[in-house]
Amino acid sequence: MTVRAPAGYAAIVTAAGRGTRAGGAPKQWRDLGGRSVLARALDAFAGFDRVVLVVHPDDMGLALRDHAGGVTIVSGGDTRAASVMAGLEALEGQATHVLIHDGARPLVGEAVIQGVIDALQAGAPAAAPALPVTDALWRGADNAVTATAPRDGLFRAQTPQGFALDQISKAHRLHPDDAADDVELALKAGVPVAITPGSEDNLKITFPADFARAERILGTAMDIRLGNGYDVHAFGPGDYVWLCGVQVAHDAGLVGHSDADVGMHALTDAIYGALAEGDIGRHFPPSDPQWKGADSAIFLRHAADLARQRGFIFGNADVTLICEAPKIGPHAAAMQARLAAIMGVDASRVSVKATTSERLGFTGRREGIAAIATAALMKA
Ligand SMILES: Nc1ccn([C@@H]2O[C@H](COP(=O)(O)OP(=O)(O)OP(=O)(O)O)[C@@H](O)[C@H]2O)c(=O)n1
Ligand SMILES: C[C@](O)(CO)[C@H](O)COP(=O)(O)O
């Protein structure tokens, strides 16, 4: 879920720094759990009508490659304040309020952004998230404590910091010097700033170890779903069967309301199961004549689309066909490719294998084919 910002609200995401303390390539372009730090920070503002992304001139090509469309990309300056100023200039006359966010804070949550918006909507000219300092504070030198310092009334500042656009633009023009953040400039210009709730998850990637910390937060926040599916179809008259989207010659057909693709049905049910969305019968009732003889790809595509609409990506899918015949091995790769194409994933994430039941039971007596499937869905 992203925050839907009120009309007139814009966001500036600053990403023109070089990330010297983090080392390596500029931190905002580096991978964090499969997506760049910056892509994650930008995502949080997808519900804003206007978003300005400020990047280093050397990164303009990268920015246009990854973020063209939807956001306005401008070149930043030598300091954070100069980069924010470039963003503010791009917004002149285009918004009433602006939230200014570090591209290096990839895990900002809805509640933090909403808290800032609510304070501005309530009439504050400026509002920013922060956390009270809870640890004792010391002064130190040469690895020794030289004094203690009171922590009362001290806060750790975060972003996004929100402002009435005209007031923060004026503050930047009045004090074009660098500052730790935009709140500092607002205060210098006499603009009062409300404190809103920050979050421990809203860390700024600053040092190398912060990547591991962010990965840990992402890991615990990851929504992982597993679903299983099971299906059986009896043999009947015919000279081929549909299995996992591939037509396989056989001395019998499979009986069913649709094309009786038992493997595809098991996989579709596994996806519905992971989404707690019932089974194929709920979405495509067998009582409905329009599904008579239907291509089962319709069912699988529907389940895969539903997963994507809910924000999930596929971890993997695994289908096992249980039959004495036909032989599955020669067709397994084609089945894998077909299922992957229907689901819109790479074939390496889909497995199709088979086993006999050692001539035991209904599959052993060649009365039909059974299939079991597992699907893993993930959402960060
Ligand atoms: N000239 C600058 C400097 C910083 N930033 C942005 O401001 C945010 C917070 O800054 P910081 O963590 O200090 O980032 P860097 O300046 O990149 O880091 P470092 O000081 O370690 O080089 C980051 O998203 C950074 O890209 C910017 O847009 N323009
Ligand atoms: C803006 C800021 O993120 C607020 O905490 C921070 O001041 C900027 O980062 P820096 O490390 O101070 O440059």
UniProtKB/TrEMBL annotation:
Pfam families with a match to the protein in the record: IspD, YgbB
Protein name: Bifunctional enzyme IspD/IspF
Entry binding sites for a divalent metal cation: D231, H233, H265
Keyword Calcium: no
Site entry: Transition state stabilizer: R21, K27, H257, T356
NCBIfam families noted in UniProt: ispD (TIGR00453), ispF (TIGR00151), PRK09382.1 (NF006899)
Residues flagged as site, Positions MEP for the nucleophilic attack: R151, K204
Cofactor: a divalent metal cation
Region annotation (2-C-methyl-D-erythritol 2,4-cyclodiphosphate synthase) ranges: 225-380
EC numbers, comma separated: 2.7.7.60, 4.6.1.12
Start and end residues of each 2-C-methyl-D-erythritol 2,4-cyclodiphosphate synthase domain: 224-377
UniProt-listed SUPFAM superfamilies: IpsF-like (SSF69765), Nucleotide-diphospho-sugar transferases (SSF53448)
Protein's job: Bifunctional enzyme that catalyzes the formation of 4-diphosphocytidyl-2-C-methyl-D-erythritol from CTP and 2-C-methyl-D-erythritol 4-phosphate (MEP) (IspD), and catalyzes the conversion of 4-diphosphocytidyl-2-C-methyl-D-erythritol 2-phosphate (CDP-ME2P) to 2-C-methyl-D-erythritol 2,4-cyclodiphosphate (ME-CPP) with a corresponding release of cytidine 5-monophosphate (CMP) (IspF).
Spans annotated as 2-C-methyl-D-erythritol 4-phosphate cytidylyltransferase: 1-224
Molecular function in Gene Ontology: 2-C-methyl-D-erythritol 2,4-cyclodiphosphate synthase activity; 2-C-methyl-D-erythritol 4-phosphate cytidylyltransferase activity
Residues at which 4-CDP-2-C-methyl-D-erythritol 2-phosphate binds: D231, V232, H233, H257, S258, D279, I280, G281, T355, T356, S357, E358, F362, R365
UniProt xrefs under Gene3D superfamilies: 2-C-methyl-D-erythritol 2,4-cyclodiphosphate synthase, Spore Coat Polysaccharide Biosynthesis Protein SpsA, Chain A
Keywords on record: Isoprene biosynthesis, Lyase, Metal-binding, Multifunctional enzyme, Nucleotidyltransferase, Transferase
Key word Transferase present: yes
Top-level taxon in the UniProt lineage: Bacteria
Gene name per UniProt: ispDF
Pathway: Isoprenoid biosynthesis; isopentenyl diphosphate biosynthesis via DXP pathway; isopentenyl diphosphate from 1-deoxy-D-xylulose 5-phosphate: step 4/6; Isoprenoid biosynthesis; isopentenyl diphosphate biosynthesis via DXP pathway; isopentenyl diphosphate from 1-deoxy-D-xylulose 5-phosphate: step 2/6
Family: In the C-terminal section; belongs to the IspF family.
Catalysis performed (reactions): 2-C-methyl-D-erythritol 4-phosphate + CTP + H(+) = 4-CDP-2-C-methyl-D-erythritol + diphosphate; 4-CDP-2-C-methyl-D-erythritol 2-phosphate = 2-C-methyl-D-erythritol 2,4-cyclic diphosphate + CMP
